[in-house]
Amino acid sequence: MAGETIIAPPRKVGMVSLGCPKALVDSERILTSLRSEGYQLSPDYAGADVVIVNTCGFLDSAKAESLEAIGEAIAENGRVVVTGCMGAEAASITARFPQVLAVTGPQQYEAVVGAVRRAAPMPPQPFVDLLPEAGLKLTPRHYSYLKISEGCNHRCAFCIIPSLRGDLDSRRPDAILREAEKLVAAGTKELLVISQDTSAYGRDLRHASFSTAGRREIRAHITDLAGELGQLGAWVRLHYIYPYAHVDELIPLMADGLILPYLDIPFQHASPSVLRAMRRPANEAKVLERIAAWRSMVPDIAIRSTFIAGFPGETEADFQLLLDWLDEAQLDRVGCFAYEPVAGAAANALPGALPLDVREDRRDRFMEKAAAISAAKLSKKVGLTLDVIIDEADGEGGATGRSKADAPEIDGKVLLRDAPDAKPGDILPVAIEDADAFDLYGAPA
Length: 445
Ligand code: SF4
Known about the structure:
Blueprint: E1 12-17, H1 21-36, E2 40-41, E3 50-55, H2 60-76, E4 80-84, H3 90-96, E5 102-103, H4 109-119, E6 143-147, E7 149-150, H5 161-165, E8 169-170, H6 173-185, E9 190-194, E10 209-211, E11 217-219, H7 222-229, E12 235-238, H8 250-255, E13 262-264, H9 272-278, H10 287-297, E14 302-309, H11 316-329, E15 333-338, H12 356-379, E16 385-393, E17 399-403, E18 414-416, E19 427-435, E20 440-444
Parallel strand pairs: 1-2, 1-3, 3-4, 4-5, 6-9, 9-12, 13-14, 14-15, 18-20
Antiparallel strand pairs: 7-8, 10-11, 16-17, 16-19, 17-18, 19-20
């Protein structure tokens, strides 16, 4: 028919995103870029013209999960592009899955987008959907991860992230603020600041100042950045903070209510000899004193951490020291992994590897103590009224949310009854009525 434009349907992309919040942010960037070119998302394998598998290669168990996901995507769809941390091992992936269309490494957004364009070229489109204001998000609309830097200057013996992602590479603070402002304007109520080493932010930029549109200059430093983010009207939660001396400067921002009273510090261990063998940054003896000082300034501060039990050379005495340290530190939230060798990590060459049953037994003993501490701390919250951000409403009057002490996915929840009006993203005062080892229960106050 003369004069009529035939519009071919847009190509659809499926995405399997594995790994940590940082990988999730990468997936969001890739999809935002593809969406801006007119691609649509497919929620299932069958409807996708091509499937991207964003892999995680941090632990051998994560690698196995990534390989399984690649195999499944090939079996279900057949047209697969692999990216992410495991992309750094392209040869082993293509040897195992010769059908894979392309393999790209972490943060190679352009390369992934290019591979998708080749695999499923978009037909010419006179009308391309407008991008949502804040880009495309895989997290619920009311909270967003904000990645402030990539890479890491440390060389912890168990970690291969620096070899996968390189040295610290901080984003400009004005660009971060712009992204945060857009997210808040689009409905984000909680910003989760992530990186490999959040407290080192801006070191590579020599903490230079940058001018922001219509705003005063901002220094590329976590204290300044957190202060600015705190003025946007959303909750601001900091993850992956190493306890460098200047972390003390963040505590007044919490006392002033600018950022959440929440510190996620991956301590990993407490025994000086194990920390030395791990080559941990900011490994200093006075951590317990500093925790006490932070708590005296912000009594409701929640400290979350992760630990490794059964690191090579860890003696029963080292482990006992860790348990005693935890008793004293009274951390609010902890995760613990039984040590697992990671291909390519320096720790594999250390003497004193421990059998799996010892590593797992120590992990279980650690988590038992952590659960008892958590239960005691949460029981003290019964009777208080806490602000709770709603994540989900069940449509029958119940809802699930989180207090300021709980990050999504990794911490506990607050389960609400009699909350028929609660909607995701609402922040409500909730009277806490009950508690167990990890979660709180209550009703709108
Ligand atoms: S600080 Fe250590 S564990 Fe964290 S990313 Fe850097 S090298 Fe890895």
